[in-house]
Amino acid sequence: MSDKVKLAVIGIGGMGGNHLGSIQKLDNCELVAVCDIDKPLADKKAKELDVEAYYSHEELLKSKVADAVIIATPHYDHTTIAIAAMDAGVHVLTEKPVGVHKLDIEKMIAAHERNPKLIFAAMFNQRTVEAHKKLKKLIDSGEFGAIKRINWTVTNWFRSQCYYDGGGWRATWEGEGGGVLMNQCPHQLDLFQWFFGMPKTIRAFCSIAKYHNIEVEDDVTAFMEYEDGKTAVFITSTGEAPGTERLEIACERGKVVLENHKIIFHRTEELVSEFCATTEERFGTPAVWEVDVPIKEDKGGAQHQKVIDAYVNAIAKGTELIAKAEEGINSIELANAMIYSSMKNETVTLPLDGNKFYDLLQDLIKNSTFKKTVVETSKEVDMSASF
Description:
This protein is α/β, with parallel strands linked by helices. Helices cover about 35% and strands about 20% of the residues. Strands 14-13-12-11-7-10-9-8-15 form a nine-stranded mixed β-sheet. The longest helix has 17 residues. The protein is globular and about 75 Å long. The protein starts with a strand and ends in a 21-residue tail after the last helix.
């Protein structure tokens, strides 16, 4: 008998297929089953990996073959499957986004509260990046002083029309619940709230189908204000190439730039506010040191593999997760609020009324006239190119 955690992956057509490879590299768990509504795909992978194949999550959970599951299905199914799994006594790691809208995630959190001994984790693999871990530590330590302004440009999520045509559920309100904010940017939105907390207001401008034949947002500019007075601008797009990912933080000790997994701290010799109040130079600025912040080399396997490893160890040994799934409500609230703000042409005050966004989403689904183009292909997709 193996004492390894018995894992099953639900949804193996895209990222779930990538997770199968990650699991094979870990020695603390055992892949025991794959589950997908695509029966030929499930059978093929099960045969290759010498595991059981299932064609519905209900069938898999009823079998009790797995202690834990990884959910990598289309977005709306995350909620249904996670709740069913936890109520069946099975641990859950769900892909991002944790859910499509705030009300769904609240239902998932309630299921975990009913089953508090279970592990409920989220696939926020960007938290494993050493540069992100270092920046989080520096912010929390107060090294930068009070943060005044945040500018984050995330336009390196370029996606072709071929990408959007590659799945019937993709880039629709009914199938995905949004565009770049729901599919690509849950990563940066999670990091955003992890680094800086939640703002008090959001005013966003979401362009629908600016670059692609889709019915959801593929270009977003959002302005946020915090209780302490700091402001933030968040920009993202799937239509710009070459793209940029640059986070710039203006603070009491100068300026911090995170780009290309490097942190440059333009550190002033004195607090900017003190220099401003005491200098007798009309055009002077504080002296600055340019500090190339040392960062550990990213080691220990791929990002997703690290999250799965931590998930399994949390089950077996009670150790810490990379990200608790409950925290996923924050990035979804940001995404929901941005879409709501843009659609209603108004500033949103947080916390967002989940019922109002749900009603908006249902209206978008009900009134949709978009005709989805789906191009079937037998070519295997290299998901490693997507992150």
